[in-house]
Amino acid sequence: MSFFKVSNACNGCLACVQNCPANALKYVDEGNRRTLLHNMALCARCGNCWRICPQGAIEFQSLLGGAWDEVATMDLMRCTVCGEPLYTSDFQETLAERVDYNIEPLCALHRQNLSFMTWKRLAPGKGEAEGAQR
Amino acid sequence: MIVGKLKPMQEIVDSISEFHKVLILGCGTCVTVCLTGGDKEAHVLSSDLANGGYFKENPPTFTVDTIERQCEWDLVKTYLHIPPDTDAVLSLACGAGVQTVADVLKTLPVIPALNTTFLGALDEPGIWREKCHGCGECVLAYTGGICPVSRCAKRLFNGPCGGSTGGKCEINQELDCAWHLIIERLKALGRLDDYDKIHPAKDWSVGRAGGPRSMERIAPIEMNV
């Protein structure tokens, strides 16, 4: 997605490319076709392109407002009592491998409310071992 | 970057108590990065002012907006939209931003919510320290990249003074002596000869002492693509 938008008023004069202090704009001519390119990672959003454009074609508000890019999606594990998001399902699998049993997803509040007996049921081997040490 | 600090809440309250509808205006650049004047801080300030019980009677109502830079006249003129009936703007920008917005709005009072504090660098997460005074005549090439103007309490050009002990400044034992740092850095660079050179008195007229400064940048542009 490009946040650098120009209107149809752009006549390809390259004033924006020449005056971009961050080298965030360039162009490619292929045959009779000129393409303007923008690199968001280099762009300082200084607005020089918008100031300099003789056609007033730079829609700078797009660069100021931007838009949201989807970066990652993941499955969530929620507290089985209240539904509060706790961690991802991948995290739960990793945790289960490490501790050798499946932990019921519970938030801090509802974990506190569990009785010792319930803890023993959830983590039989571990609970007994810890209890014996105490 | 420019570092600013939020003013004491009572001072902010006193400065806006006579108004009815106040736009709290964040700035999207330096003060966003130093966590004092960005969009998030503007919303927090709005919430604090509205709900903190600071006003004896008729508290103002607040709206919040943030623009990318308050210090550029044409950007403010084009993209700052003042909500109807706003009778004051509480700006979270540095002094340059406050003045630019005031200059654009002309008849609307623009009130600073920050004290613009210094030109600094992020030394550690959450810790900014003063590194530059904008003195107009940079000497970092001869001082191992450590500024004696901004980091020496006495702004000495041929230091250290007699108050430096154990690498700390006499005004505050928490404060590094800039000249101690300079000597250590010059040693590490193998450039202690630079330390032996006597620096003449600085021309302070190129700094703030010469009055307000300005810069024009008009240069031929070369194609770099």
Question: How would you describe the overall organization of this protein?
Answer:
The complex is a heterodimer of chains A (134) and B (225). By secondary structure, chain A is of the alpha+beta class. Chain A is 37% helix and 14% strand. Chain A has seven helices and four strands, in the order αββααββαααα. A two-stranded antiparallel sheet of chain A has the order 1-2. In chain A, strands 3-4 form a two-stranded antiparallel sheet. The model of chain A has no long low-confidence stretch (mean pLDDT 87). By secondary structure, chain B is an alpha/beta fold. Chain B has helices at residues 9-16, 30-33, 39-51, 73-79, 95-105, 148-151, 178-189, 192-196, and strands spanning 2-6, 21-27, 61-67, 88-91, 110-112, 114-124, 127-132, 168-169, 172-176. In chain B, the strands form three sheets. In chain B, strands 3-2-4-5 form a four-stranded parallel β-sheet, with helices on both faces. Chain B has a three-stranded antiparallel β-sheet with strand order 1-6-7. The mean pLDDT of chain B is 94.
**What count of helical segments of chain B does DSSP give?**
8
Write down how many β-strands of chain A occur, each being a DSSP E stretch of 2 or more residues: 4
- What is the element string of chain B, with H for helices and E for strands? EHEHHEHEHEEEHEEHH
Q: What structural category characterises the helix and strand content of chain A?
A: alpha+beta
As laid out across the biggest beta sheet of chain B, the strand order is 3-2-4-5
pLDDT averaged residue by residue of chain A: 87
Uncertain segments of chain A of ≥5 residues (pLDDT<50)?
none
List the helices and strands of chain A in order: HEEHHEEHHHH
Largest interface: A-B, 12 and 11 residues
Instruction: Write down how many β-strands of chain B occur, each being a DSSP E stretch of 2 or more residues.
Output: 9
Helix content of chain B: 25-40%
